[in-house]
Automatic annotation (TrEMBL):
Residues 40-55 have a biased composition (Polar residues). PANTHER family: BINDING PROTEIN, PUTATIVE (AFU_ORTHOLOGUE AFUA_4G06240)-RELATED (PTHR10281:SF115), MEMBRANE-ASSOCIATED PROGESTERONE RECEPTOR COMPONENT-RELATED (PTHR10281). Gene3D superfamilies: Cytochrome b5-like heme/steroid binding domain (3.10.120.10). This is Cytochrome b5 heme-binding domain-containing protein. Keywords: Membrane, Transmembrane, Transmembrane helix. The keyword Transmembrane applies. GO terms for molecular function: heme binding. One of its GO terms (cellular component) is membrane. The chain crosses the membrane at residues 14-31. Residues 90-186 form the Cytochrome b5 heme-binding domain. It comes from the Eukaryota.
C-alpha cells in the first residue's frame, strides 16, 4: 500500500501552488486591462470599447474623434486596370504548365473553369508558396472547403454543401475583381459543367 506523508514543508508548497494558480488569472486580466487601455482595442473587441476609448482620449486631453487609427487590410483592393477578359481554351493538362515552377511562364489559377493570371502575386502562388497548391490547376473544391490539401485542390466542386459553395463563389468574385481572366477550362468534370456549354 501507498502512504502519503504530509509534512509542513510539502503542505506549504501545496498551499503556495494553489494560491499561485488562483492568482495568475487575476494578474493576467489586470495586465490585459492595463495594456488594452494604453495600447488600443482588446482582442475580444475589434473596435475596442467606445466608452473606454473615449474616456482614455479625454484623460489625454483629446476629443474622442481627434485620434484616428489607421487600419491595414490584408486583402488587396479591387484592381481598376484589369484587361478585358479572354476566352482562350485550356485543358486541365495544359493548365499544369502554369504552376509557378517555371519563372519564365505566367502563373494561372482556375476557379469554376475561369482561368486567372495570378503572376503578380508570385509571393503567394509561386513555387513553394502558401497557395501554390492552386497554381496550374482548377482547385475549386479546395477553395470552397478553405482547404490547402493537395487532394482537395480538384475541379469537381459538385460535392460542396451550400456554405462551401458560397465560399467558392466568394473566391470567384474576389478573383474576378483582382486578376486578369485569360481563358477557360474546356474539360471540367461533367458534374460541374453548366448546361449551356
Amino acid at each position: 500500500m501507498f502512504t502519503f506523508c504530509h509534512d509542513d514543508d510539502s503542505q506549504r508548497r501545496l498551499a503556495f501552488s494553489a494560491s499561485l494558480i488562483a492568482v495568475l488569472p487575476v494578474i493576467y486580466l489586470v495586465y490585459r486591462k492595463v495594456f488594452a487601455t494604453n495600447q488600443g482595442p482588446s482582442r475580444n473587441s475589434p473596435a475596442g470599447s467606445s466608452n473606454s476609448t473615449a474616456a482614455s482620449l479625454a484623460a489625454q486631453g483629446q476629443a474622442p474623434n481627434a485620434q484616428k487609427r489607421e487600419t491595414k487590410s490584408i486583402m488587396q483592393p479591387a484592381k481598376t486596370d484589369l484587361a478585358p477578359p479572354k476566352d482562350d481554351p485550356f485543358t486541365l493538362e495544359q493548365l499544369k504548365e502554369f504552376n509557378g515552377s517555371d519563372p519564365t511562364k505566367p502563373i494561372y489559377v482556375s476557379i469554376k473553369g475561369t482561368v486567372f493570371d495570378v503572376s503578380h502575386k508570385n509571393d503567394v502562388y509561386g513555387a513553394g508558396k502558401s497557395y501554390n497548391v492552386f497554381a496550374g490547376t482548377d482547385g475549386s473544391r479546395g477553395l470552397g472547403m478553405s482547404s490547402l490539401k493537395l487532394e482537395d485542390a480538384v475541379p469537381d466542386y459538385s460535392v460542396l454543401d451550400e456554405k462551401d459553395m458560397k465560399t467558392l463563389n466568394d473566391w470567384h468574385d474576389f478573383f474576378k475583381k483582382r486578376y486578369n481572366i485569360v481563358g477557360r477550362v474546356t474539360d471540367l468534370p461533367l458534374t460541374v459543367v453548366p448546361p449551356n456549354l
